[in-house]
Structure formats: C-alpha cells, structure tokens
Write a structure and sequence with these properties.
Blueprint lengths: L22 E7 L9 H11 L3 E2 L8 E2 L1 E5 L13 E2 L3 E4 L5 H17 L1
Parallel strand pairs: 1-2, 1-4, 3-5, 4-6
C-alpha cells in the first residue's frame, strides 16, 4: 500500500513555487484508501512543470482559478462542490491521465494570460 499523499507535502500549504504566478489551482486529494499509483509523485511532476501556478491545498474560504482533484482509483471519490472555483475542475485517478491534465493546465494558463 502506498503512503497517503498528505504525508508528502507537510510544508506546502499556500506555498508559491515560482516568482511569476499566473494563476491559483487548488489541489484536492482523495483519502487514499485504495491508491493504484503514487499520487504524491504525480502531483510533484505537475507542480514542478508548472512553476508559475500556485498549488495550495483546497480550502472552503478561498477562490481558485481551477481545482485539480487527484484520486487514487477509478472511484475518484473526493468531494469538491464545497470549493469556490471560477474555472475548470480537473480530475485524475490514474497515472495515465498526467499528459491530459498537463495539456488542460497549459490551456487554462494560456486563457488566463490572454485575459
């Protein structure tokens, strides 16, 4: 069994990973009861590629440009309706979704830059 994702990111709440932040995309992990891949590794890969996007843990008292829900299996059961999201909610539940999630984040970032 893989460790829960939250253990990977003890000091990342509201951390900015680049000097030129273009948008804020909240992260919501599932509970990790039955992960089929390393969700923490997937998140780190996304975060490291998109250094101009802030990736805080989702909170109910903040507004976000988008929300990335990272589930560990095909149930992708993490709730997210309680968050204030202006744009898209992106969901992944398999490592094979990484490429598509990156494409979508790039497109959302491009839209933000055009506004």
């Amino acid at each position: 069994m893989l460790p829960r994702a939250a253990s990977f990111f003890k000091n990342t709440e509201n951390t900015i990973y680049g000097d030129n932040i273009t948008m804020k995309c909240a992260i919501r992990f599932c509970g990790g009861c039955n992960p089929r891949y390393d969700r923490g590794k997937a998140f780190r890969e996304i975060r490291d590629e998109f250094v101009d996007i802030e990736f805080p843990y989702a909170r109910e008292d903040e507004e976000y440009d988008c929300l990335l829900v990272i589930g560990g299996c095909s149930n992708c059961c993490a709730s997210y309706d309680q968050y204030d999201v202006k744009g898209d909610v992106l969901k992944m539940w398999d490592e094979s979704h990484l490429k598509n999630i990156k494409k979508k984040l790039s497109a959302i970032r491009a839209e933000q830059e055009d506004d």
